[in-house]
Amino acid sequence: MENNIASCLTGTEPLDGGPSARPSPLPLRAGSDRRPHAARAGALARLKADLALRVAATPCGGADVDARQNHPPAKTGALFPPDQAAGASISRRDGHPAWLAPGALHDLFAGVADGPAAHGFATGHAIRIAAGRPVVWAFHDMAGRELGRPHGEGLADLGLDPDALLLVRARTVPELLGAAEEAARYNAVGVVIISAWGAAKAFDLTASRRLALVAARSGVAILAVRIAADPAPGAAWSRWTVRAAASRLLEGDAPGHPAFSVTLLRHRGGAAPATWILEWDRAQRTFREGASG
């Protein structure tokens, strides 16, 4: 059966508009400032204000947002959370290398045709890791034009409440990275998803290291979805390629769970490269290993 995950990205009523979209924060479009890792000050100020509102509205939120958010810009420090830096691998701690860990940067590479699959895989992990906390999704405009933007009903079908999502649209990759880095400094945010398009020279080793440092300091997971880009070395805790896989019919020929073929390329916790078929269980909000044949 064909994989049924594309609806989380496209639809007649996108998340940021239309009568059927569930209530969500207004999208933020970063400005035209092209300096590395810097969106316009006004756009970042709006992002901070929106994040403060979202954090305050969640059970883990509170009045002291600034005190929890004020991590200095990442320059030095450990790349990974303390337990990971001490050698506790994800595979031992969470039971499977593909159970992406919080407090770290994870790179997810996919071809154009598998872009929806990579976004679906990232969305599943965002649901699992965030556990009701706000999710910030920084979306490159080119990715939006080529693949479509997140769609409220599709995300809700996967299990992500659109009310908990703050969508950030950026014209350029430097703006995209700047907004993602800013959002990840809030340790009350659950997950930051980055959707980048193409080779993106700005998304180099320096940019990867900055994101990894911020994630380690705040404890926020950063899931960098790289569409139409070849896998490249970086500072991420894990590096993957993601493809769509065929869904298996459920009892009574009901539509199957969204399925993904994920290949581990590199894992700093020591897990060996391998490929798995994973299925997203909407009801349990978790991934399960599926049939490989």
User: Which strands sit side by side, in order, in the main sheet?
Assistant: 1-4-3-5-6-2-7-8-9-10
Provide the β-strand percentage band: 15-25%
* CATH homology superfamily of the domain at 6-58 and 95-235: P-loop containing nucleotide triphosphate hydrolases
Along the chain, the helix and strand elements come as EHHHHEHEHHEHEHEEEEE
Strand segment tally? 10
What does the average pLDDT come to?
Answer: 75
| Main β sheet profile | 10 strands, mixed
Which of globular, elongated, flat, extended, rod-shaped describes the shape?
globular
Q: CATH architecture of the domain at 6-58 and 95-235, please? A: 3-Layer(aba) Sandwich
> What's the CATH first level of the domain at 6-58 and 95-235?
Alpha Beta
What share of the residues lie within helices? Answer: 25-40%
Account of the 3D structure:
There is one protein chain. The protein has 293 residues and is of the alpha/beta class. The protein has a domain at 6-58 and 95-235: P-loop containing nucleotide triphosphate hydrolases (Rossmann fold, 3-Layer(aba) Sandwich). It contains nine helices and ten strands. It has helices at residues 41-56, 65-69, 82-85, 90-94, 115-130, 141-147, 152-158, 173-184, 205-218; strands at residues 28-29, 105-110, 135-140, 165-170, 191-197, 221-227, 238-245, 259-267, 274-281, 286-289. The chain has a ten-stranded mixed beta sheet, with helices on both faces. A hairpin with a 6-residue loop joins strand 8 and strand 9 (274-281). Helix 8 packs parallel to helix 9 (205-218). The radius of gyration is 18 Å and the shape is globular. Residues 10-40 and 60-93 have low confidence and may be disordered.
